Structure formats: structure tokens, C-alpha cells
TrEMBL record:
Keywords of the record: Membrane, Transmembrane, Transmembrane helix
UniProt protein name: Uncharacterized protein
Transmembrane segments: 43-64, 112-130, 142-161, 181-199, 219-237, 249-267
């Protein structure tokens, strides 16, 4: 989505002021002039809030991965120490803290997974809501609908965590792996869809496009890479269920997923003008708005709608339309009886 319009004088690609160094760009005069403008743009930018929720979701996943009290590594260490000290009371207390409610069988980790799945669904809705200039049946909305399906599948899987069995080959455990594998494939299709959405909507200006100078390019490459890693992990678990719990390949996917969310937010800050203090294409002393590129700045490509302008209305008309014969039969004046 192009957050900047071609005629917006505060857009980064229309910047007319150049700086010779970062210290000149961060003078109080510049900060006082630019911060209110940037803050106002971010406040009314729907995409900014969607990226912020997306970042919190990625952070939550990393917390579960690397917090020893949540991933179970702390329990193993404490149990080893307690076995040495022969302190059975500490074992029971530690197990109760880590595993949570033993009566319901729902651990703190599973509750966090459920909360993150709900946040994921909220994030998907925010991304759909962010396309304010596009209709619901626009072509670029397809990955947003796939994102909702993916979030729904992960939410379904998070609910099934409470039925997880000790047997790695149990019904609920294998069904959970199948659900998460399906979600991983849907996420991969959505990732390619986001690349298509970016191509159709990004602003054709200097420093944007198929270049690593554009944070959007780095972001969608990383999220696509993380999708491939999730698929590889889930296929390994489906093939060898005994690796569940010991296979940590998805850790790499979670890290790349987090880095991608940071770049998405970084691109959003660039669009809102927060990065005025950074050099243009690695160089200070030039202004993006004064560079002659030979091509006009263009915010995306024309919209492409699925099934026409009004697919629902067209479908309803097909069902409600009746074949009415409106033809008129000509009247022969010679056959009309004359009145006497």
C-alpha cells in the first residue's frame, strides 16, 4: 500500500532539503519542525498500527521460544539440581509454577499460545482494514483473506493444545501437526500474495522497488523465507512425530519472522517521514525531491477487481432477472374491421 501520495509535500520522496551529516539533520530546529508532522501521519496511518501489533506478536513468539520458564528448560535444570539436593518440596512447587493448573491440564505456555493466536487474528483484521483506498474484491485483498484463514487455523491449533497427549502418535497430537502444516502452506501462499500486493501498490520513486534500500523488499523476503522454514519443520514433524519437542528448526523461522516484522515497521516509519536524518541511497548532501529520475512519481498501479465492479450485485441480478418478452407485434391495419 502506498502511504504517500504524489502531491504530498511532506513525503520522503518529495524532500527538498538536504543535510551534509546526521548531526545537521538532528538539530533541534529540524526535530521541532518534523516530529509533529511525522507523529500526525503515524497517528492516522492504519498500516502503522497493524505493523505494531504484528511486531508484538513476533516478540511474544520469541519470548515463548527462549524463556526457560516457558519452554521447559528451567524445569529440567531445577529438577536435576533438586535430585542432587533431594528436595522433593521444591520439585513439586516448581512443577506447579511451570505447568500451571494441573487440574485443567492447561499450562501457562498453552495459554500464551492461545493469546498469541488471538493477537494474530487481530493483526490480520488490521491489515485488511488498512487498505482504505481499495475495495473488498480488489486483487490485492487475496493475501489478506489467506492471512485470516492462516490465523484461524493457528487459533484452532492453539485451542487443541489443551488436548495434547503424552503419546506423540496420539490422535490429537497428529491432528495438531496437520493443522499447523496446513497453516504453514497457507502462510506461504499469503507471502507470495503480499509480494504481488507490494508490486502493485508501492510508490515508484527513488530508493524504492527491487532494491535492498527499500525495507519493504527486505521484509517480504524475510517473511517468505520464514514460511519455507515453517513448512520444512512441519513436514519433518509429520514424517517423524518422535522429533516433536526436540526439533528446534522453527526457532530459526521465528527469528527471521521477527526481523521481518522490524523491517515492516521500519518501512512504515520511512513512509511517515521519521527517517529524514538518514542519507538518501547512502549519501548525504542530496535531497530526494531534487533528483531528476526521468520518470514521474507514481503511487502504485491501477486497481484490478475480481469478478467485475460489483460481483455480488451481478450475481443477484443473474438470479433475479426474468426473461420478459418485450417485443411488440405489428398490427396490420387491413385486418382491423371497419365500423359501419
Amino acid at each position: 500500500m502506498a502511504d504517500d501520495e504524489e502531491n504530498d509535500p511532506t513525503a520522503p520522496f518529495n524532500e527538498l532539503e538536504s543535510f551534509d551529516s546526521i548531526w545537521e539533520a538532528l538539530k533541534w530546529q529540524q526535530i521541532k519542525k518534523r516530529i509533529p508532522i511525522c507523529f500526525k501521519k503515524s497517528l492516522y496511518n492504519r498500516y502503522f498500527f497493524a505493523n505494531l501489533v504484528y511486531l508484538f506478536y513476533a516478540i511474544g513468539i520469541l519470548v515463548i521460544d527462549y524463556d526457560p520458564w516457558l519452554n521447559g528448560s528451567a524445569e529440567e535444570v531445577i529438577e536435576e539440581l533438586v535430585c542432587i539436593c533431594n528436595d522433593t518440596l521444591l520439585v513439586s512447587n516448581t512443577t506447579e509454577i511451570i505447568k500451571g493448573d494441573t487440574e485443567t491440564g492447561i499450562s501457562i505456555t498453552n495459554r500464551m499460545y492461545l493469546a498469541l493466536a488471538i493477537i494474530h487474528l487481530i493483526s490480520a483484521s488490521l491489515y485488511w482494514w488498512a487498505w482504505r483506498d481499495h475495495r473488498w474484491n480488489d486483487l490485492i485483498m487475496i493475501p489478506e483473506y489467506l492471512n485470516h484463514i492462516e490465523a484461524g487455523l493457528y487459533l484452532w491449533g492453539a485451542i487443541w493444545y489443551q488436548y495434547e497427549e503424552d503419546d506423540l502418535f496420539g490422535y490429537h497430537t497428529l491432528a495438531l501437526h496437520k493443522i499447523e502444516t496446513t497453516a504453514a502452506f497457507v502462510e506461504l501462499f499469503a507471502s507470495f500474495g503480499w509480494i504481488m500486493s507490494w508490486y502493485r501498490t508501492y510508490t515508484r520513486a527513488i530508493g524504492r522497488g527491487y532494491t535492498l534500500d527499500d525495507p519493504d523488499t527486505v521484509a517480504y523476503l524475510l517473511t517468505t523465507l520464514s514460511s519455507f522454514i515453517y513448512i520444512a519443520y512441519n513436514i519433518q514433524i509429520l514424517t517423524h512425530p518422535e522429533q516433536y519437542g526436540s526439533n528446534t528448526l522453527y526457532y530459526n523461522g521465528d527469528i527471521i519472522y521477527f526481523i521481518g516484522s522490524v523491517f515492516y515497521l521500519w518501512a512504515n516509519l520511512r513512509d511517515d517521514g521519521w527517517l529524514w536524518w538518514m542519507p538518501v541511497s547512502g549519501q548525504y548532501g542530496i535531497a530526494a525531491g531534487r533528483i531528476e529520475t526521468g520518470k514521474p512519481i507514481k503511487a502504485g498501479l491501477p486497481h484490478v477487481l475480481m469478478c467485475g465492479n460489483d460481483p455480488c450485485l451481478t450475481c443477484c441480478r443473474k438470479f433475479t432477472k426474468r426473461d420478459i418478452d418485450n417485443s411488440v407485434t405489428p398490427i396490420d391495419d387491413n385486418n382491423i374491421p371497419k365500423q359501419v
